[in-house]
Amino acid sequence: MFSNLLLVLGVAALSAGLRSFRHPVLFRLGTLAIVATSFLAGWLLGGNIWLGVAFAISWLFLPWLEILTRVRHLRLPADRALAPRRPPSRHTFPGFDEITGEVESQGFEHVEDTGFDDGGNRQFFRVFHHPSKRLQASICLIEQSDIAFFYISLTTRTEDGRTLVTWNYPFSYGLKLVPRLRMNRVTGDRPFGDLLVEHEGFLDRSEAGKIVAQSPDEVLAAMQDDLRAQISYNLDAGLLKKDGPKFIRYTVRGMFYLWMQFLRDLVRFF
Prior knowledge:
Shape: globular
Order of helices and strands: HHHHEEHEEEEEEHHEEH
Number of domains: 2
Largest sheet: 7 strands, mixed
Structural class: alpha+beta
Mean pLDDT: 84
Distance between the termini: 31 Å
Strand order of the largest sheet: 2-3-4-5-6-7-8
């Protein structure tokens, strides 16, 4: 039994070590080692191979703990109204000023600091506009309880009604995107200049056609319209439902959609 315990601990230590590397192959091997640790714990320590299988596949159902205990009771504002916000502190977002400098060095002009509260989560946007390229950029900070993360997006709007977005949002999104929105997701920690090159390539591949020119005020108004259109689309799709005149919440269908998004991330991380 003691040798089995040492084996389980050894595989667990191996998984932690592999996931500390930034190389994608080693990271994925570390994730596999976590699953292997769970299997070995059930088989060698529990004494049953089927218990090991159950432990291993339990990772697939782990999100339901969060979904049933928090998401099921979550009430979200029906209207995500943008309002002016103060920029985050260095403690909350240590690299914020540096990223802002990167964006402005590419010719973007600061438009507004804005955001909204969403069911206990706070979203902050620093919005930029590049007049000659007719391009919008945003640095977004999302604060959820005791964790926070950020992403950067680049947005182009075309005269045929499409919105073309390149972003490095680190997870699969928790709501369906409206059909007119085309996403180009860039993985990894990339500098802003690389994201800009990726977006320009995305525009070429998408045959963007004529790009709509927007004033700073129109940029903010379009962002607000996008947020409202997303809520409306997910209400129609059955992922959300109304909870009184001012709030919405996830439906059962919406909770299963969240779970499927987690599985997509799991496959991607592997």
